[in-house]
Amino acid sequence: MATYPLATLACTIDSTGISAPGYSDIYASLQASFQSIYGSDIYIESDSQDGQWLALLAQIINDGNQADVTTFTGYSPSYAQGAALSSQVKINGLRRDVSSNSTVPVDVGGVAGTIITSGVVQDTNKNLWNLPETVTIPLAGTVEVTATAQNTGAIAALADTVTTIYNPQPGWQSVNNPAAATPGDAVETDAALRQRQSTSTSLSALTPLQAISAAIGNVSGIGRYKVYENPTGTVDSNGIPAHSIAVVAEGGDVTTIAQTIEQKKSPGTGTYGTTSITVTDPAGVPIAISFFEMTEVAIITQITVVPLTGYVSTTKTLISGAVVKYLSGFSVGQDSYLGKLFGPANLSGDAATSSSGQTQAELDVLSNTYNLPIQNIYQGRGDMLVTAGPYSAGTTTISVANVASLAAGRSIIVNQSDGSQLNATITSITGNAVTFTPAIATGKTIATGAQVLVNGDLSIAFNEGAQCVAADVTVLP
């Protein structure tokens, strides 16, 4: 039996950090020490009383070592867990986010000068949302504020569904949400808190752009975000004016976001966006801050697999989950490239393993039960819809609301009124008019609002973010 020095029982701290011997090494060291005292012929196997006693001692020492390792690493935000991590991030002025409420931007309308106190509005699902404590109607007659759900968690509200004034007040005439709500979150995970701590170290960055980005990321309730800068003297390709910045943020309180931008941006730097909030600078002077509330874009996909030996219908659920996970992880302004969908659709990569809970080796077995040619994957934006219909048999040109991702030579599929699909190739595009071949078949029609999918990449604007749920993914057969 090998001889294990007594030093292997304890933790070791050196320039690389802390390390501890494994349980088996501790147990072997105790056995060697025991035999050096009582003789090498003493019986100390696991079925003996002495062997069991040594195993118990080894477990006690191992547990103590692990506690030491946890305590040591708890002083670093990179390794601390739970309460230790919550304590460590206080150095950066952070605290772990508790469960949060959903928020939704609402346009509040009424008589100019009206002061709404503790206003409450209601959506079509009877969920109640609180306005800020006081809301003053400006001369324009409407003002955008952020309403907060009364209940915590992921309370959903689609655009134009928060329309009821729950506690009417004189002068308050209307309310509506132009965009969908940002769902609330559960208690912040260790991983998310570590990421926020890492970002927060740029709060005092030398460059204002880094500081603005870090500060926006630290706003409570913020999801995805991105800060664009146009340092040139002309309008850039995104439409951002010269010497201006454009902040795109998902969720968060609009007033807090505007205040954060004002506090961090350089004097004289312009701000650009569709949401404009007036805040005051340190001198008390009102200043209008503009930014973008990120627009969610639904990504619709249809994947047709070729079943092989061993293919089962439950594999479709795994494919759908992997695609949803992949698309839901997109950053602000990230395009959806068709070729990159091939990985999750073949149950390969992080999106597949994390969504399924299976190892890559296990998923590879399932992936071998079907084939997936790249021409069998179609995707489309939720706003790639047919307009000005219906279109009858023989038609070769239809109008599509958003053609930015369409091009001559690309294959498309379009839902038809009877549940079938038109499979065609685009021959030309003029404005929003898309011409294709072959024509709509006899007995078939395409209605207004029909979804268009393309065997190609999807363009996502700089102020948009992809969104995908299970209902958006169809796996055939």
Structure description:
The chain is 25% helix and 29% strand. Mean pLDDT is 88; it is low at 1-7. Helix 1 crosses helix 2 and helix 5 packs antiparallel against helix 6. Helix 6 links the parallel strand 12 (244-251) and strand 13. It is of the alpha+beta class and 477 residues long.
Gist of the model:
By secondary structure, the chain is of the alpha+beta class. The chain is 25% helix and 29% strand.
Secondary structure blueprint with pairings:
Blueprint: E1 12-14, E2 17-19, H1 23-38, H2 49-73, H3 82-88, E3 101-110, E4 115-117, E5 120-123, E6 128-130, E7 134-136, E8 142-152, E9 162-165, E10 172-176, H4 190-200, H5 208-217, E11 222-230, E12 244-251, H6 254-264, E13 270-271, E14 275-280, E15 286-293, E16 295-304, E17 306-307, H7 314-328, H8 338-345, H9 350-356, H10 360-367, E18 370-371, E19 377-381, E20 386-387, E21 397-400, E22 411-415, E23 421-430, E24 433-437, E25 452-454, E26 464-467, E27 473-476
Parallel strand pairs: 12-13, 12-15, 16-26, 16-27
Antiparallel strand pairs: 1-2, 3-8, 3-10, 4-7, 5-6, 5-9, 6-8, 11-12, 14-15, 16-19, 17-18, 20-21, 21-24, 22-23, 22-25, 23-24
Helix pairs in contact: 1-2, 5-6, 7-9
What's the main sheet like? 6 strands, antiparallel
Provide the gyration radius in Å.
Answer: 30 Å
Q: Within the largest sheet, what's the order of strands?
A: 9-5-6-8-3-10
Integer average pLDDT? 88
Low-pLDDT regions: 1-7
Structural class assignment: alpha+beta
Assign a percent range to the helix content.
10-25%
Count of extended strands:
27
Shape: globular
Which percent range describes the beta-strand content? Answer: 25-35%
Ends: how far apart? Answer: 61 Å
Count of helix runs: 10
